């Protein structure tokens, strides 16, 4: 409800076909009563430009969306993304997140960004100290295996000094699904 934009990495987009639709008219009305648009801007970021162009993110027109492609993506992939009619912005290779955030803040007026993943994007945001709050849904399902995905994956683990520490803000249970919705605030030095 509060987010100006909702960000997904390309792998998450390939897996879920995400959009920024809220799916609840009351929430849409609440956004608009707060001076926001009906839907947040849907955003995807990709280093390679390998995107599922047949997904609703690219085919629907009832919500705004923007694509951020690394300058490392091939011209053909950039052209294919642009052909969908979605706005495409090229961000510097190796500095994609910072380039995207500069554009979002400066050109789109984004003040609150909700990142829904994936794990590589999450890792970059954590590594750069850009996460203010972290929302986690704890579900009553046990997943096992050596190659199981985690919420934060990157080229290396955080060192002991780099480990993000969090303070619990709220915990809400869902009696229908037995899920617990956790909200944390990133602990900053001196706070």
Structure description:
- The model has no long low-confidence stretch (mean pLDDT 92).
- The chain is globular.
- The strands form 2 sheets. Strands 4-3-2-1-5 form a 5-stranded parallel beta sheet, with helices on both faces.
- The protein has helices at residues 10-16, 25-33, 56-59, 75-82, 96-108, 119-127; strands spanning 5-9, 41-46, 65-70, 87-91, 113-115, 133-138, 166-174, 179-186.
- By secondary structure, the protein is an alpha/beta fold.
- The protein contains 6 helices and 8 strands.
Q: What can be said about this structure in brief?
A:
With 191 residues, the chain is α/β, with parallel strands linked by helices. It is built from six helices and eight strands. The two termini are 27 Å apart.
